[in-house]
Amino acid sequence: MKNYKRFIVPVLVCAVLFAGAGIAFFYKGRTQALKPDQFVQEKASFMRLFQNSSEIHRMWTEGEESREWSLIKSACLKHLGITSKFDESLLRCSPILLQCHALFSKNLNYKFVNFEEFDNSSYRYMTKSNTSYTGLRDPGATVTIEDLQTKKRMDIFLADQCQEVYLEQRAYAYGEPVDPKDGEDYRFDNYNRHLYLDIHLTTNAEVNDWLKFGNPDFTRGLKAKTGNDLFLPATDLNYSQIENFCSFKGKQVMLAHFFDAATFLPMDLTDKIPKRNLRSPYYWTKKTSDYKSDCNLIYSKDCLAKKTYQLNSIGPTWAGLQDSMGGVFEVFRNPIDPESNLRASSFYFDSKSSWHKLGFRAGWNGEGFDLRDFDFRGLNPFVAIDKFQVGFRCMREVMQ
User: Fold this and answer.
1) Does the entry feature the keyword Transmembrane helix, yes or no (predicted)?
2) Does residue 129 register a pLDDT over 90?
3) How many alpha carbons lie under 13 Å from residue 107 in its C-beta half-sphere?
4) CB neighbour list of residue 247: distance below 8 Å, 6 or more residues apart
5) Which of 102, 129, 159 marks a domain boundary?
6) Would you say 298 and 176 are in contact if contact means Cβ atoms under 8 Å apart?
């Protein structure tokens, strides 16, 4: 009996071991059989996400020139409540186009994932001021797309760099030209400096992003704009709010002398350091006497009855800035002459006004929008309005 027990115990142990090995082999084989299918699905999902990411980047930069916009334009404008004509180039690097694409494009194999912490927005505007991510260099929009088949997700960062121009490195001059008999001309250069200037005045749509993703301590009293106001200049911010908006975008308020650099037409583009910076008071000509009343060159008071004002209706300057004359007022930061911080060339003055000159500036206290808040050097506009409109643009310097 003892011999039988000594025999049967090793047999049972071996049987258990073989059975366990068989079960293990069966599951291992099943796992190996599933892996190729899973791999194929994972690869297909990744390829779809990657392709969609590439298409979203393309659409982001192409804006109004993208094939998607031509297909969804009518539905998008109706959805936004836009009935007036506007410069559609403002759709470049704009989340508005992506949102409409997601809403009205058919047969998409992905969707945008909403950010619950931001009122279910389909994107988040990220800058160094509202994120702790140290690797962020430029501001832009972050979106998350989800593959409809596998529910796999991919985060996409879209840099906001479509609406800037690079200021060429050369010698420039500030303000109105100075006769050598009257004093020394104010000259400067931007060598070894990499400056990027906003092409257009800041829009209400851009300020809406600040209201949604910026610090609420700086946005009190401001309300989001909709419909036809989206692509008009933001004109109801005081100077402190303007500074904070530009800071939110990782920029600063446009400096007056760099605005001059981008608007005064150089007499000789090949001469980077001319002996004198001769300049015309008009951005489109080298001749001081070559002035004409033209709503395509200066949107003055005369133009209000001729055509509707819209952003980017005037320009561009030699460097690429839009709306450098006419339209709404434009405020600058002016460390050279702080009290001369306002481009008064606007639709508040008729075409014969002396305010329609580059470098000739008024002043704004940065607080209110009544006549008493402005210094027009005695050349006040003859208008009966409750509130003047003051626009602005930003700029940034890249350290390399």
Assistant:
1) yes
2) no
3) 1
4) 129
5) 159
6) no
